[in-house]
Amino acid sequence: MSNARPTPDDPTAKPPEVLLVDDDEVNLLLTAAALRERGFNITESNGGEQALKLLADWSPDLIVLDAMMPGLDGFATCQRLRTMHGYENVPVLMLTGLDDDASITRAYQAGATDFFVKANQWSLLAGRLQYLLRASRTRLELERSQARLARAQDLARMGSFDWRRAGPQGSGGTLLLSSQGLRVLGHGVGDTVTVRSILRQVKRSERASVMRLLQSVMLHSSVLATDVPVFFRDGRHRIIHVEAEPEFNEHGHGIGYTGIVQDVTDRRVAEDRIRHLANYDSLTGLPNRRHLVWRMERAIDHARRLGHPCAFLMIDLDRFKLINDTLGHAAGDELLMEVAQRLRACVRHSEQVMENSLEAVGSRAHRSLEAVGRLGGDEFIALLPEISDERDAQRVADRILEVMRAPVLVGGQECFVTASVGIAIFPRDGNSVADLMRNSDVAMFSVKSGGKDASALYSPQLAGRGREKLELESALHKAIERDELVLHYQPMVDVRSARMVGAEALMRWQRGNALVPPGDFIPLAEESGLIVPLSEWALREAARQARIWKNSFGFDDAISVNLPSRVFERGQLVDQLHRNAMQYGIPHRMVRLEITETGLMKELQSVIPSLLQLKDINVDVAIDDFGTGYSSLAYLTTLPISELKIDRSFVRDLGVTPQSSGIVTAIIAVARSLNLRVIGEGVESLRQMEVLHRLGCSLMQGFLFSRPIPPDDLERWLEQTVLPRRAPWIGQAAELELGTVPVRAAGSRSY
Amino acid sequence: MLAMPDLSQPSPRPAAAVLDAASLQRLHELDPQGTNRVVERVLRTFEGSLQRLLAQAAQAAVAGDAEAARHAVHTLKSSSASVGALALSRCCSDIEQQLRTQPLAALQGLLDELQHEGQRVLQAVRDQLPD
């Protein structure tokens, strides 16, 4: 007989460990020898007590017990070991007599896995052991797999269920939930749960729709997949995902469902958060541009279908940048939050819209699109998805203007903000979101240039001003907020001493990569009224620069800023200069104002009060382009001004036409007699310089000395050109006869 | 080497059946090369066990202890079968069966036969063993 080794599933596996218990030495010896011969690793024991002792610190894969033993017999031994930890499921084979039915029954009762009739048929015994070991391994794997599944379900907060349809009379059917499933629904393992009791857990507002869905799914035996908001007994609110497939009997009738329940609250919360971040402005909590555009598109679709108008209100805060700059960004943010609150109260602001859910919820659902959102910066937009006519929109705009006028407390300080509102109405003013946004912008902008704090309806006349110009105007309007404006500086020099005595600030617009010269936007700014905020900005910026230069090289003269007459007319000018001087800690005289002769004479009466106030606070005023207008010399004597700037056209012709030197001579004479400083502008050549100087004007400005340059470049110009006395005009100036005394001493310091 | 049956001795069973050749052959197959001396160890163990169990059975018969007698014959039943002492095993089995329905005292004939056959097997086993 060839004793083929037992065929373990894995030939490399360790031989199975078997504990063999028999009180009869002969049998013990024989059986052990036979089983060893067949590849088992046998440990022998001659009685129950000894066996239990062995098992205390060693676990075999299988135990073979002789049933009949003195002392602790096989049955008692088996019973004992089943109560020991870790031996609940170890396979136990009981060896019984052939004619011993009672023992077989007792063996199973004692917890034996199987029995075997004692005989010397070793191969059969070995085969039985192999079978038991394989069954045990399978059982272990199953247990592990179940444990893994349970753990995975626990981690996924998932459980399974099985629902059987009720018979003809029954109601509700039978629901079986796994223990994980019970936990997912907030129940303990022993709890009884029915479809009805679960429905009672569903949030009341959702219950009817959940029931409708269940009925419809069951009616068609279709797949169920839905998220259900439920409450636990402890009041916690969770969202449970239910997914189930129908089961059918052999006749094709649906008999029930099997599926899973999963707690997806965390995922839903995260998804909601992501959706919120993507669609809402984090500062104000209002819908952002993306979300508003989405709403607007739907509102337009709807309005088109139902044939009613809808309105877009573009809302831009007036002078927000000023608040931001003077009180700081934190205050600016605070202001925006308060403004958002107020705006929200002006419309039936709705957060209710869920993407894609609109179509499902009836024809009036588009009203839930109504909202106010933030486009960015201080720009907001209100969407009125259904209006009867433009008066509705006008009413909302009025309400907005009204609520904005109330003072806002930011940073412990009361601020006054107003808004400019532009209204565009679908379909009259445009057919697409893009058109309507642009046109509401145009309307809003017309309010801005017309004096702010008002609303306007879009009209084609507004656009008729020329799209390009309008866009430029709109862009210029934003240029201030976007910090696109810069000042360049052209030094003024005293050629006698070859030193700088001041600088004129000239505005440039850094638009994208292009530097727009003032000629291309100042006239437009004057026309639109934007010149006012531009000038306010320039005054502040000049004061800031004066401070920087004061610190970096002891600058103590003045920076001249060009102002149009309408700024001089404003009562706020003096206040603003005060504020700037205070904020940057410079004397008032370090910012000088320039007004053109033409501008001054045109608005003389309204400008004079400002000029007097300016004199009081030591702000010098220069008359620019002098000689081109028609100054009344009588007035000139009474005006509180301190400087005349000879227009460049006269300087250009110096030494070319005799008339020009005559005019220049006359201007210098006037200045001298009125005790005014005089400066020649537009000096481009040494010859012009020489003539001008000979005529009695030593203060000059022009390309000969420097073009207008950025502030850092000006410092470099001082360091590399003026201080080393390196420029051609310096040598020339030094050779000039020093006979003419200047009208008024220039700054005491030389740079 | 199998022991030759002693034909001069009267016996109720065929002399050739003292130790069954096939059973002994199976014992040999447990250790075909004899490296573990399994056959010798089994027979020596059986020799000791047989002597002890025969004595226990005799003592139990004298004392009238049916339970002790039953345990002795039960154990001897399977171990004797293992070494090929089939007649002895059958005798043990008979006693075990009878004891379920009859008192020990009623089985004197079977118990005598047990002792007699037991001695024959003991001798046969000793013949199998090297000195």
Description:
The complex is a heterodimer of chains A (751) and B (131). Chain A is built from 28 helices and 26 strands. Chain A has 751 residues and is α/β, with parallel strands linked by helices. Chain A has four domains: 17-152, Rossmann fold (3-Layer(aba) Sandwich), CATH 3.40.50.2300; 156-270, Beta-Lactamase; 282-464, Alpha-Beta Plaits (2-Layer Sandwich), CATH 3.30.70; 485-735, TIM Barrel (Alpha-Beta Barrel). In chain A, the strands form five sheets. Chain A has an eight-stranded mixed β-barrel, surrounded by six helices. In chain A, strands 2-1-3-4-5 form a five-stranded parallel sheet, sandwiched between helices. In chain A, strands 7-6-10-9-8 form a five-stranded antiparallel sheet, sandwiched between helices. The radius of gyration of chain A is 48 Å and the shape is elongated. The termini of chain A are far apart. Mean pLDDT of chain A is 85; it is low at 1-8, 356-361 and 737-751. Chain B has one domain (17-128): HPT domain (Four Helix Bundle (Hemerythrin (Met), subunit A)), CATH 1.20.120.160. The interface between A and B is medium-sized, with 18 and 22 residues.
Produce a short descriptive summary.
The complex is a heterodimer of chains A (751) and B (131). By secondary structure, chain A is an alpha/beta fold.
Mean pLDDT metric of chain A: 85
| Strand order, largest beta sheet of chain A | 18-19-21-22-23-24-25-26
- CATH architectural name of chain B: Up-down Bundle
CATH superfamily of the largest domain in chain A: EAL domain
- CATH class type of the largest domain in chain A: Alpha Beta
Question: What count of domains describes the coordinates of chain B?
Answer: 1
Mean of pLDDT of chain B: 83
- What is the oligomer described by this structure? heterodimer
**Percentage of residues in helical conformation of chain A:** 40-55%
Task: Just name the CATH architecture of the largest domain in chain A.
Answer: Alpha-Beta Barrel
Could you spell the SSE succession of chain B in H and E letters?
HHHHH
The CATH C-level name of chain B is: Mainly Alpha
State the largest interface: A-B, 18 and 22 residues
Strand content of chain B: under 5%
Tell me about the largest β-sheet of chain A: 8 strands, mixed, barrel
Q: State the low-pLDDT regions of chain A, or none.
A: 1-8, 356-361, 737-751
Tell me the distance between the termini of chain B.
Answer: 14 Å
Give the number of helices of chain A: 28
